[in-house]
Amino acid sequence: MEKKIKIVVFGMVVALLVTFLPFRQTEIYAGISENAYSYYQEYGNNVCFFPFSETDGMIYYATKANLASSDIRYRTIGWKLSVKDSSGKKLQTMYFKLGGNYMYAVHRVRKGGAEYNLYALTLGDLKDRLNAKASQALNKGKASMVMDACMIVVRKGKAQGTMNDQGPVSGKVYTTYQGISGAESWSRESYTSFHNYFHKEIQGLFFWVDAIAGEGIASVSGGGEYCYGYTACLKAKAKKGYDFAEWRGDCYGDREKQEFYVTNDVRCVAYGQKKKLQIFFHRNSSKDDTEMDVQTMTYGYGKVPLENIGWKTKGKKLVGWAMKPDAKKADLKCGAVVKDSWIIRYSPKIDLYGVWKTENTDDLTDPDPTDPDPTGPDPTDPDPAGPDPTDPDPETPGTDREDPKPDSGDPDPVKPKDLDEDFPRGKIISFHCRFISKKYFEDAGQNLIPKERGGLAGDSKWITEDSLRVWLRQLLA
């Protein structure tokens, strides 16, 4: 009586849940889940799963036994369920007796000379009986379930074996095709029918989660075949130079890790996007200077020079950039080249602060920032080798400076009157000279690079070595 009440109440609950819960449903025709004959006509002796929530549902199985006068018959009295991992290794074996504590009888009816029985098992009860290894494998999408009938021979109405929810108890209980087919001399129809009772899957219980690596993604994990109601956990790893962007398809979200209950087949594609680096330039010409500019660089575009902002301050010259606002020495020259490795290292942002020197000091003059030297310092080295921008008298690589030659006594090739035109006698002249090379201060057309772009003053003039010796001799006389 208690069992009948349980079945009726459970049927009402299932009907309500199937009607109102928002999840994938398998349509069950009216009366099929409660009528053994109708169920068998629709699904035969297949084991089928029908959900009633996101994590649980009913597993149904129906049997048919002919009411014949034969003295020898066969009968299914339960199921042996095997859980196997993805390589086929058995993780656990469980038994369910038809009409036992787990797979209980729902309905029985006689019709057309046969008896039909409908049994049901909740997925929750099945999960509760799993051991740790089997449960973990199912939760990772790396396991499957196979069911084999537990069959006996019935002679003159007497069962030749018994079982319970832990397995066979007495007599002969057959769980393989070879066992039951060899137990008696059966009809040809029976031999054929036995194939339908072994190595069966529970239809509608397992679903495939397809995890795919899209553009910018190195690998994804978590895909596989999952039991209904278990949690799939997908993870994506971006390629070098990329950040994870999003999931598309049946999954969505902007996090590398994606978790969800498996209630259907799904296809999820992970995508990445190229790393970006925002460089915030702070003019930093004084303690209260808040002027700022931004440059964005994207991975994969090769060597890119720092932006030529063109900031000017009276009496000062911008000689480079530092990573600290109070730094006295520039970590990077103006127009330094930024490599992909630097973008990876400092993404998503970095702050650079201007380093200024007074205009009249003998600071290292930077090359034209609009045409940076590709052999210049690597910005990935915060203290690159090479001349110190703060060194008042640097050795500039590649200069044509030579020591003046001793006076040979030969007549000077430059006439004194030529020098008098630029430097008239009797007038005090202040000047500033440097020994430099043309290749650092002329553009491709051999024109002087203007001072605003790191070059020379507009009134600068080149002088030959011989003329320089004469000029110096006159000035020092």
Q: How would you characterize this protein structure?
A:
The chain has 477 residues and is α+β, with helices and mostly antiparallel strands. The protein has four domains: 2-197, no CATH class; 206-274; 276-358, Immunoglobulin-like (Sandwich); 416-475, no CATH class. 16% of the residues lie in helices and 34% in strands. The protein has nine helices and 24 strands. It has helices at residues 2-20, 36-43, 123-128, 132-139, 177-181, 188-194, 340-346, 416-422, 465-475; strands spanning 48-51, 57-66, 72-85, 90-97, 104-111, 114-122, 143-155, 158-159, 161-164, 167-171, 206-213, 217-221, 224-227, 231-238, 242-249, 257-261, 266-274, 276-282, 292-298, 304-305, 316-322, 332-333, 337-338, 349-358. The protein has a five-stranded mixed beta sheet with strand order 19-18-24-21-22. A hairpin with a 4-residue loop joins β3 (72-85) and β4 (90-97). The longest helix has 19 residues, at 2-20. The protein is rod-shaped and about 140 Å long. The protein starts with a helix and ends with a helix. Mean pLDDT is 80; it is low at 1-30 and 361-420.
How is the topology of this model organized?
Layout: H1 2-20, H2 36-43, E1 48-51, E2 57-66, E3 72-85, E4 90-97, E5 104-111, E6 114-122, H3 123-128, H4 132-139, E7 143-155, E8 158-159, E9 161-164, E10 167-171, H5 177-181, H6 188-194, E11 206-213, E12 217-221, E13 224-227, E14 231-238, E15 242-249, E16 257-261, E17 266-274, E18 276-282, E19 292-298, E20 304-305, E21 316-322, E22 332-333, E23 337-338, H7 340-346, E24 349-358, H8 416-422, H9 465-475
